[in-house]
Design brief:
Layout: E1 7-9, E2 12-14, E3 30-32, H1 34-41, E4 61-63, E5 77-88, E6 93-107, E7 130-135, E8 140-145, E9 165-172, E10 189-192, E11 198-204, E12 207-215, E13 220-222, E14 225-226, E15 231-232, E16 236-238, E17 244-250, H2 254-260, E18 276-280
């Protein structure tokens, strides 16, 4: 949560996030279970711990990949580096100078990943059937099972403070592409709070609120391939998943804030970017 008083920094007087204890480090490249996320949104840290051995499903924090050279460390997947040669399809011979290397992701046994899709006709992908599809850059075959989407982690009850303000957190669960200044949602402008500290005011899906503080990870450059135009997408910096915005709003905004849970912010939201969950602080 933010500190009670603003402090002078290189960007002005701001309420920096505070943590209990010393020597705290940012936890990057990890995933958290659904039940643990619900507790975190409610501000509860009890029962949240790291996995120490493979298959330890009681633990709630898992690294995406093990540290280099430590394959015995529990993780969700492994990175495999492959080297190959570019090939001329007409002659079926290699092309001089076309040596390349790629990192492939291999999920560990018992690990699957799900994609939430909306608006798909059931006749296209009926339930209770297994479909084999090519997946990834090399088109390796994968098994696809269509099922009902799981609900998002539970949103905690939002309570109004003695000053008539609602204090809530916006937690990014997927990277977000912000158009202004790299980390601010569109339309948010710099202002001052009654404590003299900087805050950023704007409207998010109809909710008038102020960003009081934020924990933002290092920008993640993301591009991809534009299927419609047949060319690469330009690299753009994205706010990484796991980033948190600490916000304030009037109590009259309660319904709108509740509706933000499970929605999106930023650009390219139809592709899944900028998915958010709402917590309290």
């Amino acid at each position: 949560r933010p500190a009670d008083e603003p402090v002078d920094t290189d960007i002005g007087s701001v309420r920096l996030p505070r943590g209990e204890g010393r020597g705290l480090k940012v936890l990057e490249g990890h995933f958290i279970s659904e039940s643990a996320m619900s507790r975190l949104l409610a501000g509860q840290l009890e029962g949240i711990s790291h996995a120490h051995e493979e298959g330890d499903t009681r633990k709630t924090i898992w690294p995406a990949f093990p540290p280099e050279g430590k394959l015995e460390i529990p993780a969700l997947a492994d990175l495999e580096f492959h080297v190959g040669l570019g090939r001329d399809n007409a002659t079926r011979r290699h092309v001089d100078g076309m040596l390349y290397g790629i990192s492939l992701i291999r999920l560990r046994p018992g690990v699957r990943f799900a994609v939430r899709v909306e608006g798909v006709d059931e006749r296209i992908h009926p339930q209770d059937e297994t479909i084999i599809v090519p997946l990834g850059g090399e088109g390796k075959l994968a098994r696809l099972v269509v099922d009902d989407a799981r609900p998002w982690p539970k949103r905690p009850e939002l309570k109004t403070g003695a000053d008539g303000k609602l204090r809530f957190r916006i937690v990014l669960t997927t990277p977000a592409c912000m158009p202004e200044k790299g980390w601010l949602p569109e339309g948010f402008v710099e202002g001052r709070g009654i404590d003299g500290g900087l805050r950023w005011q704007g409207c998010l899906q109809g909710v008038e609120c102020s960003i009081v503080s934020a924990c933002i990870g290092k920008a993640v450059p993301m591009g991809g391939w534009n299927m419609a135009e047949g060319r690469p997408r330009p690299l753009q910096p994205h706010v990484p998943a796991g980033s948190v915005y600490f916000c304030e709003a009037d109590a009259s905004q309660i319904k709108g804030i509740q509706n933000l849970h499970g929605s999106h912010m930023g650009q390219n939201t139809a592709l899944g970017f900028g998915h958010i969950l709402i917590g309290c602080w």
